[in-house]
Amino acid sequence: MINKKKVLGYVMVGALGLNMLGATSTFAAEKETSNKTHSSSRVEASVSHDKTTVNIELKKLQTEAKKLNIKVDGKKADVLKKEIEECQNLHKQAKKLGLEPDGKTPDTLKKEIEECQTLQKQAKKLGLKPDGKTPGTLKKEIEEYQTLQKQAKKLGLKVDGKTLSILKIEVQQHLKL
Prior knowledge:
177 residues; mainly alpha; rod-shaped
């Protein structure tokens, strides 16, 4: 007969082996769950970090936009970036034209730049030099020149190709006569 002690020993070794195998698979399952949790928290931390970074960038853009009198309500970062760049370009253009851009909205600046460019073109057509002159000064010179031209024509004087100062002198001389 088979020795009962040997059989009992084999059964015990088998049971112990199965017990160890079960503990190992349980440990592996716990480790896998733990890794998923850590991975999930890493993803959440990354997303949270990205949101914080985006919020900080958006707040910086909003602050910069407000300084340039750009409306910021409901606008995303990419829209604000584009509007800020456009407004900065308008400021450069305005300064080149002798306009003061500070405190003005982008729409107001656009209008003033267009008016100034129109005045400069009109001044050049009349033979006036617009460089370095403010829009107000240009407007006065254009009006004065046009008034002098009308007076000169009424007096029978030729006006073509004459500067403002020459036309002024001729009209005054003719009026003294």
